[in-house]
Design goal:
Number of strands: 16
Number of helices: 20
Radius of gyration: 23 Å
Helix content: 40-55%
CATH class of the largest domain: Alpha Beta
CATH architecture of the largest domain: Alpha-Beta Horseshoe
CATH topology of the largest domain: pyruvate-formate lyase- activating enzyme
Shape: globular
Mean pLDDT: 91
Number of domains: 3
Strand content: 5-15%
Structural class: alpha/beta
Largest sheet: 6 strands, parallel
Distance between the termini: 40 Å
Low-confidence stretches: 1-6, 559-565
Strand order of the largest sheet: 2-1-3-4-5-6
Amino acid sequence: MSETHRKQTLLLGLLPFWTPLNPPLGLACLKGYLAEFAYDVELVDLNVIDTFKQLYEDYFETLKIAVPDGKRGNFYNIGHDVMENHLMAHLNGREAAGFVNIVREVVEKNFFVKVEDCVVQQLDAVADEIFRRLEGCFFEQFERVRPDVVGLSVVRGNIASSLFIFQKVKAAHPGVRTVMGGPVFSQGLVVGSPNMNAFLEATSYIDKLIVGEGELLLRELLDGRLDRDKRIYTKGDVQDRILDLEQAPLADFSGMNLDYYTYMANYSSRSCPFQCSFCAETIYWGNYRKKTGTLIYQEMKALYETSGNQLFLMCDSLLNPVISDLADVCVRHDASLYWDGYLRVDRQACDAATVHRWRRGGFYRARLGVESGSLAVLDLMGKKIDLQQIKAAVTNLAEAGVKTTTYWVIGHPGETDEDFAMTLALVEELADFIYEAECNPFRYFYSGQVSSEAWEARHNPHPLYSDAALEALLIQAWDLDTEPSREERYERVNRFVEHCRRLGIPNPYSMREIHEADERWAALHKNAVPTITEFKKSCAIDENLSVTRLLEGHFSCDEEGDFDF
């Protein structure tokens, strides 16, 4: 590597609006990796700034004026789609004569309500303030670092903010290289899709786009070993090499405000060994690979010692292949490191003794992809599980005290109203064993999902937004000609949320709501894990070391199903 390359300084950032529970792991992984090759990397995370938290709340409080209570099922997640598209329209088409109609169309096609011009104007006043504050906050960090390269991690919700900053950087400092990466390329901006082709034409101010796992690609780019005439780089540009997770350096969070976050972050694997129809993980990451339980434990211990936070969010798509190994290592070391992560219903989760072992090893919350209460819909999704297995997994986890966050996809193609009624019935049956129930309407992406091509062949994909709106929105959303319709999907989401409300099952967002959900869980389950508020850096928790085994779960299941990894 030349001395010129060694002296490059990078400013890598995550911009609003993204509402993570943990500090940006992807950026920290890049910093830890590039530091080994003498690159100077500074991180900026503007999500921690109170100004943006307040503007976020201002936007949603204003949006509530247009959306009546009965249509606010999963209000924030659906509202993120509105906010994302509105900010894009503000960035690309605010001066257009039909701008108000574009924003109105976005709100109406997500909440199915009519919107008054005065509400659009109020929303846009918040959007205007967002961009004004964003420019000031970012360039304060830019002037401090004076980077050679600005790289932004783009996720659902912050693409407009990212494009705005890329524009401003390139206009003020044309010699600074601008590089875009992040999960946005797994769905709305898949390489070769109509969206990506239009995006490339409209964003000449972005020099390079890195699609997929970033460590090797970014280093090769910085070292000058990639084709300079290309704008998009994928793993094919590094001969399909992928990072050896056993050799990857520890994520480096230095420079971030970790006090803002509830969780510390780490990961145990990349990609997923399964192929659920609506998912994009395997398309984005490629082959699944994992770390050993010993390495995961060592990394968590090191991060705890530097951050003081013993509560982790594991940012994997799935913990199943590593969870027992990790728990066993933690038990052997009498460790009190608590960890939260995504889980699939499998044979291990159906065994009460195994789940108790996980709890003893520090398992704090299971983010469980249940998805549906209909076996027919589960089969359409490719879940390869049945209802008895779901019941056994949820009850075993709950009786061990592990928080059970259940995720549900509402309105998957082919879901009938009878199927949806089965979902509501399953939620009701398991109500006391569900810590949190979060549902999302099925979303189709033109490409990037496991079943994108199959749906395209059968269900005639069509643009969601009008041609008049597309130039401003830049990234088109798509829908399918299938049952249930988009409006019916969103109506079922409202019914799902109201059903959970009647049953007392929360879906908390604020710290107050999380505290109330924790109190409910403690009252329901003797072995309940500590509440969020109990995790204080000055006082370590070790109750997992003495947790006792309770009765077997109410349900058992056979060993049929695709439970191999």
